[in-house]
From TrEMBL:
Taxonomic classification: Bacteria, Bacillati, Actinomycetota, Actinomycetes, Micrococcales
List of catalytic residues: E309 (nucleophile)
Family, similarity comment: Belongs to the glycosyl hydrolase 1 family.
Organism: Herbiconiux aconitum
Gene3D superfamilies in alphabetical order: Glycosidases
InterPro entries (UniProt xref): GH (IPR017853), Glyco_hydro_1 (IPR001360), Glyco_hydro_1_AS (IPR018120)
Protein name, entry field: beta-glucosidase
Keyword annotations from UniProtKB, A to Z: Glycosidase, Hydrolase
Length: 388
């Protein structure tokens, strides 16, 4: 099946706001990166200047033949101080949506991708008593952006990773050995925030399709104890699948598998010595995508699935192509098995800042960080012309 034969199938690439825009001075991550003796190894700084070069980025997507583009809105730009709404930033993101539509691209907008306004974080972040109301206020003021041509919104990127932040220092490779149990209070709060945002979107923009994208490993049960396996996966991602009940779709963001075995009486991740690893320290296992999709579908039932992220951190673009081809084959296999998958977004459009490090290169194009020139890799043209 040629993807072009299904005009409703979302076929695109993705970028995160803080990772690509640069100089998000009012965000909590900017403060974290720039404080004395920061635990963040490398700062985002100018990032890849997508705040000013978004037109170049969208031109890459459209010229490759892709039809969809996932990008984020920075809350800290929209509301840099508590209650102060930047009309200039609203106008900026409105122009981005309009620019995507002008190029024939369907924008999928992410409202929260790890970063928070510093004023919100300093007051307790997601655990502050008014967190849901403040997040809803932010969603309310985005009306001019959302009414400029947005059909789908991802409220929160990887809520399970957000809920891990309180229990681990996030940085390059921090999660490569497996996910710790997310903080229970943050899990509850982030689910409430998602439902609160969905309420606003349904009320104000009923035509927009709402979901969120969960970080989903292909957890493989090697425990010989279904009960222990379920106890392992439930807080790490399945509780977030269940929270999508009532949504229009759920996003699956998958890069690797996690083999789960019993160790000293407890279910724990296991990896064979000597397996091939990506630049992120994850096992190089492209067929994880299909396995993750099947596991999500087993929980959410008929809820449509969108692959909102999938890719590989590698300096070898030929490996990127072969990895993506095999991942897509596993996705089509899941579709053939009856799973309703409605789209695929490759992570990432460009090499960008990966939460503390510039080393992992996921991009379909590289960026000269002195001139900010975008340099397409063969994988970009390959993905744009891909057919099943």
């Amino acid at each position: 099946m040629n993807t072009r034969a299904r005009p409703d199938f979302l076929w695109g690439a993705a970028l995160g706001a803080h990772q690509s825009e640069g100089n998000n001075l009012a965000s909590d991550w900017w403060v974290r990166e720039n404080e004395p003796q920061s635990v963040v190894a490398e700062r985002a700084g100018d990032a890849i200047d997508s705040y000013h070069r978004w037109r170049d980025d969208m031109d890459l997507v459209a010229s490759a033949g892709l039809t969809d583009y996932r990008f984020g809105i920075e809350w800290s730009r929209v509301e840099p101080a508590d209650g102060h709404i930047s009309l200039a930033s609203i106008g900026h993101y409105q122009r981005m949506v309009q620019g995507a539509v002008k190029r024939g691209l369907r924008p999928l907008i992410t409202l929260h991708h790890f970063t928070l306004p510093q004023w919100f974080a300093a007051g307790g972040g997601w655990l502050r008593p008014d967190a849901v109301e403040r997040f809803q206020r932010y969603v309310e003021v985005l009306a001019p952006v959302l009414e400029s041509g947005v059909d789908r919104v991802e409220t929160i990127n990887e809520p399970n990773i957000v809920s891990i932040f309180p229990v681990i220092s996030i940085g390059n490779g921090a999660l490569s050995a497996g996910y710790p149990i997310p903080d229970a209070a943050t899990t509850e709060a982030i689910i409430a925030a998602h439902h609160g945002a969905r309420e606003v979107l349904r009320r104000n923009h009923p035509r927009i399709l709402v979901g969120w994208g969960v970080s989903v490993q292909d957890f493989q049960d090697e425990t010989n104890s279904r009960e222990d396996f379920e106890a392992y996966v439930e807080p790490r991602d399945q509780v977030f699948f269940r929270a999508a009940a009532g949504d229009d779709w759920i996003g699956t963001q998958t890069y690797t598998r996690g083999r789960i075995r019993m160790h000293e009486g407890v279910a724990a991740p296991f990896r064979e010595p000597g397996v091939s690893l990506t630049q992120s320290g994850w096992e190089d296992y492209p067929r994880a995508l299909g396995g993750a999709i099947l596991r999500v579908a087993s929980i959410v039932g008929d809820l449509p699935i969108i692959v909102t992220e999938n890719g590989i951190a590698t300096a070898d673009d030929a490996r990127r192509i072969s990895f993506t081809r095999e991942a897509l084959e596993s996705m089509w296999s899941a579709i053939d098995d009856g799973v309703d998958v409605q789209g695929y977004f490759h992570w990432s459009l460009l090499d960008n800042w990966e939460w503390g490090s510039w080393r992992p290169t996921f991009g379909l194009a590289s960026v000269d960080r002195q001139t900010f020139q975008r340099i397409p890799k063969p994988s970009l043209a390959w993905l744009g012309s891909y057919s099943r």
